[in-house]
Amino acid sequence: MIKLGYKLMSEEHGPKDLVRNLVRAEQAGFDLAAISDHFSPWVEEQGHAPLAWSVLGAAAQATTRIGLMTAVTCPIMRYHPAIIAQGAATIALLSDNRFTLGLGAGERLNEHVAGQGWPGVGERHERLSEAIDIIQGLLTGDLSNYRGQYFRLDQARLYDRPSEKPPVVMAAGGPEAARLAARKTDGLVVTEPKPELVEAFRSANGNGPRYAEVSMCWAPSADEAQKTAHHYFRWAVTGWAVQAELPNTRGFAAATKHVTPEIVAQQVTCGPAAEVHLDAINKYIDAGYDHIILTQVGPRQAEFIEFFERQLAPALRRR
Length: 319
Fold this sequence. Notes:
GO terms for molecular function: oxidoreductase activity, acting on paired donors, with incorporation or reduction of molecular oxygen. It is an enzyme of class 1 (oxidoreductase). Residues 11-291 form the Luciferase-like domain. The chain is an alpha/beta fold. The chain has one domain (3-217, 273-318): Alpha-Beta Barrel (TIM Barrel), CATH 3.20.20.30. The protein contains 13 helices and eleven strands. The strands form two sheets. An eight-stranded parallel beta barrel has the order 1-2-3-4-7-8-9-11, surrounded by nine helices. The termini are close together.
């Protein structure tokens, strides 16, 4: 069965609005909600970056049914993996085991603030691999000491740990990362409808959930939606090789100076027609993803949630 998720874009909304939007999303029937974990917005127009873990604590108390997850958090620079494990265990307890920990290798935009520089992609993946081992070991209670190339643990123990280990899933943009997700975590997270990532995940004996984020912009007209998507989301057309490396919003402003609303609309479905958005969503489902997280770009969150409840959800649940 396909599970339907709502994206809490912490770069576009303040903490109170995120919680309010989540409550409405639960009422509308979303199965889960995923929050981005950023220190900075991508572009100045977005204007927000609250601490995701504080929002998750409030979200756990404001809701009763909807699943919660990070999509995704980076445990290799800004956070030590032991702190992420402690946070995941705490949110799992506060939410009565509704929490899934989504992990990824991160971006310079958020991680360089710790003043440790920004390593190359090879080192980032090595760090992520070690971090996952630490997090999984602390969440199961099987690990208290660790000496890796990048991280250390010294007599660590989670005193408040749920009876069920929270699922840990990993973001992947290529087959090698998808196979790592299969070997070390409980599921896969992607942002593109690539069937080869599902194939790589399964080839390494991955049999957990496969999450996909789908970006869209509902508005009363396609023209308004395209302008909104361009205003808030033009950074997304730069591609991962750029997104992982630029250090601040000024860099993304420069990189997207010549991006038009029409270019953004090639990546973000825009407008009031359900069929347009359903076609995009179905590409992910056809590629093998079974947890679909919908990202509504811009301020029209209440209208989008109503649109989901009235048109998208019935069509997707029939499928």
